[in-house]
From TrEMBL:
Location in or out of the cell: Cell membrane
Boundaries of every ABC transporter domain copy: 2-227
Topology versus the membrane: Peripheral membrane protein
GO CC annotations, alphabetized: plasma membrane
Molecular function terms from GO: ABC-type amino acid transporter activity; ATP binding; ATP hydrolysis activity
SMART domains, alphabetized: AAA
Keywords from the UniProt entry: Amino-acid transport, ATP-binding, Cell membrane, Membrane, Nucleotide-binding, Transport
PANTHER family: AMINO ACID IMPORT ATP-BINDING PROTEIN, GLUTAMATE_ASPARTATE IMPORT ATP-BINDING PROTEIN GLTL
Source organism (scientific name): Microvirga aerilata
Name of this protein: Amino acid ABC transporter ATP-binding protein
Family to which the UniProt record says this protein belongs: Belongs to the ABC transporter superfamily.
Length: 227
């Protein structure tokens, strides 16, 4: 579904990605792990063209990522992105945050959009919080709204950039559990995370980054078990 071929990315003289090649197959959960600053987030941001490449190529669903912004915007609609910092609209309720893409991008009627948004908020365990504004939700709840918002667009792949790193420890589990449910349903997911137990239990494939390169990759039992 995603093919990275010798991807290179530089920031000035600093090489953030130094020839990264990787396959993400449909229905798989691929976890990117490794020290801070090793290039994991950069790879995700290159995937949805928030960053441009300095070399190599990324293909999504058998086509190289387009070079122009209007074309890329269409491709991005098939990618769901979840950030560390939630990025919800503060002046919209949970329901409005989830429904917004449906009414604006998909041109869905308000009633249908609200129905769908309600179903998605129920799916992430927030049926009783649809009218809450982000300020009146915990970090874990806000992140679940962000996941529901991404799912509303029916993405073919979900990209998670340290989705639990900004959360209070007691709410990390509820977000990981929603992610695990998605994985069990067959969603293709690329997850940058420091949650090793999630990587060990949920990932099909674990990729260890170091200084912009892949140090190691393999199934979790290979990466995490002593030789
Ligand atoms: P190559 O030697 O061609 O680089 P890979 O390391 O990509 O091969 O793959 C080696 C094996 O691991 C293959 O059987 C391949 O199907 C499998 N594999 C590669 N990438 C993934 C992935 N993201 N998830 C699961 N299996 C994978
Ligand atoms: P990770 O996700 O593994 O923590 P990142 O991909 O965020 O790593 O960053 C890789 C490296 O690239 C880091 O050293 C970081 O400081 C650098 N970097 C990331 N974004 C920028 C930027 N916009 N400008 C300059 N350097 C950057």
């Amino acid at each position: 579904m995603l093919i990275y071929d010798k991807v290179r990315k530089k920031y000035g003289n600093f090489t953030a990605l130094d020839g990264v090649s990787l396959n993400v197959n449909a229905g798989e959960v691929v976890c990117l792990i490794g020290p801070s600053g090793s290039g994991k987030s950069t790879l995700l941001r290159c995937t949805n063209a928030l960053e441009t490449l300095d070399g190599g190529e990324i293909s999504f669903e058998s086509r190289p990522l387009p070079k122009t912004e209007p074309e890329m915007r269409k491709v991005r609609q098939r990618m769901g992105m979840v950030f560390q910092s939630f990025e919800l609209f503060p002046h919209k309720t949970a329901l409005e945050n989830v429904a917004m893409g449906l009414t604006t991008v998909r041109k869905m009627g308000a009633e249908e959009a609200h129905k769908r948004a309600t179903a998605l908020l129920t799916k992430v365990g927030l049926a009783d919080k649809t009218a809450n504004y982000p300020a009146n939700l915990s970090g874990g709840q806000q992140q679940r709204v962000a996941i529901a918002r991404a799912l509303a667009m029916e993405p073919h792949v979900m990209l998670f950039d340290e989705p639990t790193s900004a959360l209070d420890p007691e709410t990390v589990g509820e977000v990981l559990s929603v992610m695990r449910t998605l994985a069990d349903e067959g969603m293709t997911m690329v997850v940058v995370t420091h949650e090793m137990s999630f990587a060990r239990r949920v990932a099909n494939w674990v990729v260890v980054f170091e200084r912009g390169q892949l140090l190691e990759e393999g199934p979790p039992q290979q990466i995490f078990e002593a030789p």
